[in-house]
């Protein structure tokens, strides 16, 4: 399986432009929809094959899905409603409080042995490639052009990191195979040989603490992103997300919400908490500080004034105001 590229040596830096990092969620951000169902389908197909034992475990997968929905519904019923969560503190309490429910779901997955026996890294990587090629998993319009712009309009090119609570970093890498050489790291969970799902990162214990073993909630994404912010080549300038697991990072660092209609759960939550979140075409200058806007795809971002990498190269940006 190809490896994710490591950061290349720095090139000559234009005056006014400092090295920086960009963080992206995967499901619903780079892709148009979540991919968990595609991962489940890939395992179901393997289970039906002679190599996987020739059995149909569709009912088992449905029990996992139904159990998650019941757990989430029960959790939501025990919490203040969206309308009652009017402060950042209240919203974070709700989002972080989902950890126990998410970890209970992962335990059910492990106890079901749904993934047991799967050569997960190789097979899910191949499933990711196959899903991209067949368009079972579709990439948002403009993503490839956006990657190209990062490479061509910044010198040195920024480090790009994928941060996800997805089950499988290998599946993500398979989907993103054409761009892996430009991606510095993919940080997500991974299906282990015993069927368990846990964080695929050497420093996960340092980030998660001793009581958790998997990335599950918005707090984990923020911890990962803060960890990356302490590493070369420089500060985090943009965060890209689509769901409320990205809320903490967007509030902290600013960036873009990818949303096909502009009315998804993340946009609603941010606006409820006092953030305006205009469409990217309504921005008259590059994003500064922790400003947030939304776009349907990466092409809209590239065509808007909120994204102006050449402006950085011109040496006209005050580096103290985090203006990109």
From TrEMBL:
Organism ancestry: Eukaryota, Fungi, Dikarya, Ascomycota, Pezizomycotina
Top-level taxon: Eukaryota
Name assigned to this protein: Uncharacterized protein
Organism: Cryphonectria parasitica (strain ATCC 38755 / EP155)
InterPro entries for this protein: HAD-like_hydrolase_phosphatase, HAD-like_sf, HAD_sf
């Amino acid at each position: 399986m190809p490896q994710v590229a490591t950061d290349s040596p720095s090139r000559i830096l234009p005056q006014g432009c400092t090295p920086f990092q960009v963080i992206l969620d995967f499901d619903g951000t780079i892709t148009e929809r979540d991919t968990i169902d595609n991962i489940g389908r890939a395992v179901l197909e393997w289970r039906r094959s002679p190599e996987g034992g020739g059995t149909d475990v569709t009912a088992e997968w449905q029990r996992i899905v139904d159990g998650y929905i019941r757990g989430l519904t029960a959790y939501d019923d025990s919490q203040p409603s969206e309308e009652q969560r009017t402060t950042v503190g209240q919203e974070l309490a709700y989002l972080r409080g989902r950890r126990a429910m998410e970890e209970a779901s992962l335990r059910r997955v492990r106890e079901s042995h749904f993934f047991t026996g799967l050569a997960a890294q190789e097979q899910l990587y191949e499933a990711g490639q196959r899903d991209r090629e067949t368009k079972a998993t579709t990439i948002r319009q403009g993503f490839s052009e956006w990657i190209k712009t990062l490479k061509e309009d910044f010198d040195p090119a920024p480090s790009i990191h994928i941060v996800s609570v997805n089950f499988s970093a290998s599946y993500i890498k398979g989907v993103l195979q054409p761009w892996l050489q430009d991606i510095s790291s993919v940080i997500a969970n991974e299906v282990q040989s015993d069927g368990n799902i846990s964080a695929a990162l050497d420093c996960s214990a340092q980030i998660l603490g001793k009581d958790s073993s998997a990335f599950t909630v918005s707090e984990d994404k923020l911890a990962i992103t803060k960890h990356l912010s302490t590493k070369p080549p420089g500060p985090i300038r943009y965060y890209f997300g689509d769901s409320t697991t990205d809320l903490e990072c967007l509030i902290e660092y600013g960036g873009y919400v990818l949303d096909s209609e502009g009315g998804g759960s993340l946009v609603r939550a941010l606006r409820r908490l006092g953030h305006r979140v205009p469409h990217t075409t309504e921005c008259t200058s590059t994003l500064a500080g922790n400003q947030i806007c939304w776009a349907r795809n990466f092409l809209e971002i590239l065509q808007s004034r909120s994204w102006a990498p050449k402006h950085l190269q011109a040496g006209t940006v005050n580096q103290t105001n985090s203006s990109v």
